[in-house]
Amino acid sequence: MYPENFRYTKEHEWVLVEEDTATIGITDHAQQELGDIVFVDLPKAGARLEQGASLGSVESVKAVSDIYTPVSGEVTEVNATLADKPEALNRDPHGAAWLVKVKLSNAAEVEGLLSAADYQAYIGAEK
Amino acid sequence: MPDVPPLRATPLNSVHRALGARMVDFGGWDMPVQYTGIVEEHRAVRTAVGLFDVSHMGEIEIRGPEAGLLTDHVTTNAVARLQPGQVQYSGLLYDHGGFVDDVLVHKVADDHYFLCVNASNQDKDFAHIRSNNRFDATVENAGGRYAQIAVQGPQARATLQKLTPVDLAAIRRYWFADGEVSGCPARIARTGYTGEAGYEIYIPPADAPRLWNELLAAGCEFGVKPVGLGARNTLRLEAKLALYGHEIDASISPFEADLAWIVKLDKGDFIGRDALLKQRESGLRRKLVGFEMRGRGIARDGYEVLSNGVPAGWVTSGSPSPTLNKNIGLCYLPAEEAQPGKPIQVMIRNQPVDAVTVETPFYKRAK
Question: Which of A22, A119, B61, B73, CA to CA, is 20 to 30 A from B153?
Fold first, then answer.
């Protein structure tokens, strides 16, 4: 369920690092908690994000959920399909429904994120 | 640590948990917000039939030779016009004209009225009615004696009819009948909070789990779904039905809430009447109006509303509308601006997003 090659945050984002680029998304746990996702608000390509700052928001019918930037860097790509098909986040949050790609400005930040095992232990304990 | 009272549970609590519902604290009650998904549950009610546990709602019984006089004194609608078996939507007001609660008044008999009230207001309502009881009548806070299940949707009648000898087609809208559902005593009211046809049944708490399961089985052929508070909210918003704490509260009058139709100023004195008369003379400052988002974004409860670029009001309820596939809401605006067709903006995460006021209800069921 939670890919071993991803890193995770306690705010339920995931990060996949390939060379100097990080792909960022929300976890399956997050989409389950939200329910039917109907709206995604993301930054534009070129935006510079600091770790911990707001990356955007995801809204379900019931609630708004903020997404936080797990790793600092410049947005190089935004998943444009989500504007019209936000429900993809309910179906494939770890794959096709990634949110943004970021060119890492501080690769060391990745080391501070959770492993798949740690994240699963964390959400297990949260319940 | 402050003392947090434990959540109250309805008689169907374990049934919801067995169905895998997501439970939330709703005004001190442990209630299902959704079972499989808000959109799917919403659609089931619009196209087939949905079951709601609304046992958290309160019931207040007023009995005695002057039960009608007391009920009329504490509510805004004309109790004298009710016949036995009839139901009336009404307001319970303070002297200053703001809402204590919105209620359904059922006339059981000349000397017996049955009020369905909001869960989180029931103790306050009971105290309010009792403190204004200078009549030959008794007031009972009877919430513990009733469970309530709402059966709503185009197939509600076909579903419920399988379990009751009462001829449901003979119950008119906003009337009720006392009878049996699957052998247990039940008050069957043709009322609801969804904008669809349907029934709300009041039953003994001990029978609720069995009846719930029998209703699910009876509705199976129609695609019945259990429906949580999430879809209950989107359904009632599309139908522009007020929710206490959102469209109405102690600071809001029925005129402001676009509920003048539940106020009968000519019926004689009642609590709040003087304040309402004054408000009618001096004119309203603000009024409730519906809107649709035009820009990208979803308005949520409490967001600020701008008119002509300046703060003018606030969103009372806002949500995506699963039926209309639009983002809709209700807001208060200065009364002179609360007309359909007016461009407004809603502040969403510090950005003004375009919207326009519209006619309501957003959704009306085809007759």
Answer: B61
A1: in domain: no
* DSSP states of B85-121: TBEEEEEEE-TTS-EEEEEEEEEEETTEEEEEE-GGG
Q: What DSSP designation does B263 have? A: -
Predicted local confidence at residue B124, as pLDDT: 98
pTM for the whole structure:
0.94
Residue the block writes with tokens 């994120």: A113
Of B40, B230, B349, the CB nearest to A62: B230
Q: Distance between CA atoms of B367 and B356, rounded to whole angstroms?
A: 28
In degrees to the nearest 10, what's the CA dihedral of A80, A81, A85, A86? -50
pLDDT tens figures, B174-198: 999 999 999 999 999 999 999 999 9
* Domain total in chain B: 3
Question: pLDDT-based confidence at B2, cuts 50/70/90?
Answer: low
Structural domain containing residue B125: 58-144
B344 shares a domain with B206: no
Contact call for A35 and B230, based on CB within 8 A: yes
Chain A residues touching residue B349 (CB < 8 angstroms): 41, 57
Q: Is residue B270 part of a domain?
A: no
**Per residue in B184-239, pLDDT tens?**
999 999 999 999 999 999 999 999 999 999 999 999 999 999 999 999 999 999 99
